[in-house]
Amino acid sequence: MLRPLFLLLGLAPLLLVAQRATPRVQLDRLVADNPVFASGHTGFSLYDLATEQTVYSYQADRYFVPASNVKLLTFYVAHRILDRSLPAIYYRRQADRVDIWGTGYPLLLHPAFYGYDELAPWLARQQLPIVVQQPENDTPPRYGAGWSWDDFDYGYVYERSGLPIYGNRLYLDLDETVTPVADALLGAPPEVARSIVQDARQERTIRRAEETNSFTVNESIYDRRNFPLQRALRTSAAFTLRQLQQAFPDQTISGGRQPRPTLTDLSAHRVAFPDTLYRRLLQDSDNYLAEQLILQSAAARYGTFDESTLFDYATDTLFAGIGLGRLRFADGSGLSRYNLVTPNQFVQVLAALDREVGRERLLSLLPTGGKTGTLKRRFDGAAEPYVWAKTGSLSGVLCVSGLLRTRSGRWLAFSFLHNNVMGRTSDYYREMERALGWVYESL
């Protein structure tokens, strides 16, 4: 009678080990051994926010091009340097004029943010002539490092500038009450919108000639489903000055090339940067806001658009302070393929945001599975939202990193990074939903 008891006692530790191993076995099957992921490179990290322990990892210390998941790094930098306010303009009052220098402020006359633009009213209130100082050595590169130059003709790549206006974009809408239909396009900047030319021979709905702001459209553009339509503009000091003069006709505005003084010799018009805009950054994955936030952070910290020093500071100080170690942070939006980050580093960024920003606020800013933003049609298989995450995609790149709440109430940070993706995006999302759905139900 004793022998079976001794046998059971001997097996008890093995049974406990088997029970503890079950999550790893299941996640290996769903992640490491997944045939959909096998054709490319996949990394995955799952981290418990309460215990600060890794729950599961697969190739989580390997570096991946993260696409728009980089916006999580950008948000962390903006949170630490800017938080909820920023300098909209730097200026110095003279006896006969007001000299102004840009800060990268992204909202001046932005068509989507008229209600949030606090710089335009400030400019309109000035009693003295305004001199817009745009020194040649103080102009940020219009493209980030590692961007694809031939994306200029699309609606997701906008040039960066120290004093952007109208969001550095052509914004078009359709007035269906106007006839003939060729006169029905409304847009900003007005100068560019008025110059659009019809070309029935071109195949694409709208095209821009490289290095110019000359747009041509074909007849298919006059379909309500195309609007509102946005395309990038070619920026320059002369273009910016001309748009300001046209937008503020009651002001005397001229241009100059005077070097930017040090921060101690300048005044700043500070404005709020509300969560609505951070939400646009993360939920809609707004590349323009991301890039201008990097310029804003550099201008706020150094008084110039010294991105290189800012990226070094972010990597060596801000990220080092939360234990990230070595990574490559090359732009704010994730359009660059020079960015290299590991899944383990992303879960540490998310853990830091959870602590510093606050979970409730962070969840309100991130896309919610099945509800908002780029996850509106993803991770919707449960009766309640369980995934809040930033997405990212480029050709051959698909990434999702965020927070997950399990059915039992456990809070986890996760990062799913895929590179060299040759299969369908829908197949990858299906398998990620299977894996994270299992985590939701079982952990």
UniProtKB/TrEMBL annotation:
Domain of life of the source: Bacteria
GO MF terms held by the record: serine-type D-Ala-D-Ala carboxypeptidase activity
EC number(s) stated in the UniProt entry for this protein: 3.4.16.4
The keyword Hydrolase appears for this protein: yes
Bilayer-spanning residue ranges: none
The entry's keywords: Carboxypeptidase, Hydrolase, Protease, Signal
Signal peptide range: 1-20
InterPro entries referenced in this protein's UniProt entry, alphabetically: Beta-lactam/transpept-like, Peptidase_S13
Entry similarity comment: Belongs to the peptidase S13 family.
Xref: PANTHER family: D-ALANYL-D-ALANINE CARBOXYPEPTIDASE, PENICILLIN-SENSITIVE CARBOXYPEPTIDASE A
NCBIfam families in UniProt: PBP4 (TIGR00666)
Protein name per UniProt: D-alanyl-D-alanine carboxypeptidase DacC
Species of provenance: Neolewinella maritima
Taxonomic lineage from the root: Bacteria, Pseudomonadati, Bacteroidota, Saprospiria, Saprospirales
Annotated gene: dacC_1
